[in-house]
Task: structure prediction
Amino acid sequence: MHSAYGIFTGKTQHTAVLEFTKTRANWVADEVWHSEQQGEWLADNRKKSLLAHVGGGTIDQVFLAILKVKYQSLRLIGLLGKILVIDEAHAYDAYMGKELEVLLEVHAAMGGSAIIMSATLPITIRGKLVNAFLQGLKGK
Result:
């Protein structure tokens, strides 16, 4: 059991960033996952949520880490060393696909990991995403 992930054993060693649909995000936020869970601290300053150990949100919120917007650097710091989980990757248009490539490259260069899920992702798109991540690993 020493290799368990998350709450199952020992000290926290890994962090994950999860993406949920709006419906699921509301459900996750309302759910009590552990008797000692803490989430209230996020309410006093919205920017603190960017630095949480585990977060959930929509893909457009993660894309703000690679776009020239306010708090971009804070968003990038929040992703450092995290596991980025992207679902329904086949559903993105060409513009969002390119943003995802850039995000994966930057995330890999910063030491992050990624899990991309899709039931029907075309092999050409899969290749682009893998190549972007590998390019980021080379730039480390």
